[in-house]
Amino acid sequence: MNDTSDNPFAQGPLRAERPPEIRDGKRREKRLDRLRLQGFWPVYAAFVVLALRPPLAEEHPALVGLRLAGLGLVLLGVAMRVWSLGYLLKKAELATAGPYGRTRNPLYVGTWLIGCGLALNAAWPFNLALLALFNAMFYFIYRAQIGIEEEMLRSIYGEPYAEYCRNVPRFLPRLSAWRAGDVSRFSLARAFRNHAWEPVAGTLLLLALQTASWGLAWPVIRGLTVGEAWRRFVFGGWIGL
Asked: pLDDT by residue (tens digit) across 130-142?
């Protein structure tokens, strides 16, 4: 596709030149926003409450590995969100570079990875139940959210967006990036203008609460004094040594 008439991306990232047209979009988005806030926070609270013991205190090495894999997914999800925000110019251009060349919704992939990781970071066997619950909620809520956003993007970009959809999967990333024409470069400053600190701070807070739950709160509930629980926490109890 060397001819610019055949390649709408040849002159650089596709700019938004018309306003979105979406049927009843505001009301639908507000309803989904309420579901995300009111639905997921109780699940996040369960991630903390059911962090009954540190990862290294699990009885079987496979269960320890499962908990540590959860931490790895959390870090991968945070990295995905920061990477994605470094390419995003909301309401100005269609992002197709970086992670957007592998999946059309890398921000939501990052959110999904963080949630799956935090679920696995809870104690066995509750972590698998929480993982199933989180994935069921994520599927129904974010599937509807993505549908609204795709409707909006089709109204703005038309056929070029349809071409992008034909080449890039909706959610699970492809290994090789799709690239058509010149694309934007990653910008850390842009990422922080897009509030990249929010997923970092929010995830660190939830990890800190999980650590405090298994390292301090539950030992006290089981009968230790606060001083003894704190001493054990400092000398390795935070991870299960």
From this structure: 999 999 999 998 8
Give the pair of three-digit tokens for residue 49: 């409450």
CA distance 116 to 201: 17
Residue type, 189: A
User: CATH assignment of 25-237?
Assistant: 1.20.120
Residues whose CB is less than 8 angstroms from the CB of residue 63 and which lie 6 or more positions away in sequence, other chains included: 124
Q: Enumerate the β-bridge partners of residue 93.
A: 15
Distance CA 45, CA 140 (A): 20
Sign for the pseudo-dihedral over CA of 198, 199, 200, 205: positive
- Of the listed ranges 6-20, 84-98, 127-141, the least confidently predicted one is 6-20
Structure tokens at 28: 């639908």
pTM of the full structure = 0.89
For residue 15, the cross-strand partners are 93
Instruction: Give phi and psi for 15, each to the nearest 5.
Output: -90, 150
Please give the full DSSP string across 104-126, using - where no structure is assigned. S-HHHHHHHHHHHHHHHTS-TTH
**Torsions phi, psi of 137, nearest 5?**
-65, -45
